[in-house]
Design a protein that fits this description.
single chain; about 350 residues
């Protein structure tokens, strides 16, 4: 059967190629784990991610990246990546989601990338912060960000056929969430406080068997777009609304989009319009369902990754063993060796 002109139908699982990208970023960031310098780990991951993206067959464009070109020399918003061959894809990337977690050697630091046909991702504009709620597939239709935390907990508990007291909510441990935490506890649910990592929080809420039933609270807007690709692929529910945390951010939104016009709720289909989105993540430090980068004598470097495709509903756990010289990775010249091994 011929493919119609301009079709975005993909003839392969691009997610498997994107896993190589997150593997390279995770391996390059891992030597910086626990050393107190998250920025150094982020730089290493950015360089590796960009290098391996150049080997992927696509016309890629970064739409959610490390920032504007003048502030982020690599993986900036608008940068073109990939081989230049079809299909045309938009990319949302976070080479180290949880930079502070990496610096302190704490769990849940991951390298992540999401991809969808060009024009599929919601544009957050001048927004840095978004209020979010995420639930797994069984409770996808139960959540409503415009309702109170207590009402959402009641509705999710009903959908999951369990009491509210057996629900656990992922919340970022930030001063802005003091009242949210109180409301959740008053309703009877449990709170899992995490210092960073709301992409991982969304994953934990959407992925079955993690012990997390919901994500609630304000996190990064760009991270919300990345997380939406995973949540959609997992069949979960997600809603968000831009929530400026400063007068400067609010003024920029008013100026760019019109006063008050940016205040509406966006759902999962607004955040990711295509039904064929991809999400890939590789653990840098350990998480409830992915082990972090490990250096094994006689084997080299071992990674664990997750690849999800919304169009087919496929979920793949990938354990990669890379015959890399750990001494080279920790020293100079490590990037060339990592890219060479991952790109094969």
């Amino acid at each position: 059967m011929s493919t119609p002109p301009g079709s975005t139908i993909l003839d392969r699982n691009l997610g498997m190629e994107l896993v190589r990208v997150t593997e390279a970023a995770a391996i390059s960031a891992a030597p910086h784990m626990g050393r107190g310098d998250g920025k150094a780990g982020d730089r290493a991951a950015v360089e590796a991610m960009r290098a391996v993206l150049g080997t992927v067959r696509m016309q890629g464009r970064i739409v959610i990246g490390e920032g504007e070109k003048d502030e982020a020399p690599m993986l900036f918003n608008g940068e073109e990546v990939g081989s230049g061959d079809p299909p045309a894809m938009d990319l949302a990337v976070d080479p180290v989601e949880g930079t502070r977690l990496l610096a302190l050697g704490l769990p849940n630091a991951i390298a992540v990338i999401a991809a969808a046909p060009a024009g599929s991702f919601w544009n957050p504009g001048a927004s840095f912060y978004m209020d979010k709620i995420v639930a797994g597939a069984p409770a996808a239709e139960a959540i409503d960000i415009e309702r109170s935390p207590a009402e959402n907990l009641r509705r999710v508990a009903e959908a999951l056929e369990r009491p509210v007291e057996r629900l656990t909510v992922f919340v970022l441990d930030k001063p802005r969430h003091l009242e949210l935490v109180r409301e959740i506890r008053r309703a009877g649910a449990r709170v899992a406080l995490h210092t960073d990592g709301d992409v991982m929080g969304a994953l934990l809420a959407a992925y079955p068997g993690t012990g997390i039933d919901l994500l609630m609270g304000i996190g990064g807007t760009p991270e919300g777009v990345i997380a939406a690709a995973a949540v959609k692929a997992l069949g979960g529910g997600m809603q968000g609304r831009r929530t400026p945390q400063s007068e400067t951010e609010r003024a920029r939104l008013d100026e760019s989009e019109g006063r008050g016009s940016w205040e509406g709720v966006v759902g999962i289909s607004d955040l990711v319009r295509s039904e064929d989105a991809f999400f890939a993540a590789t653990a840098i430090t350990g998480s409830p369902f992915l082990q972090g980068v490990r250096y094994d004598r006689g084997l080299g470097v071992t990674t664990e990754s997750l690849a999800i495709r919304a169009g087919s509903g496929s979920i793949r756990h990938i354990r990669g063993t890379h015959r890399l010289n750990a001494g080279h990775i920790f020293g100079r010249g490590g990037l060339d060796e990592v890219v060479g091994a991952i790109a094969d």
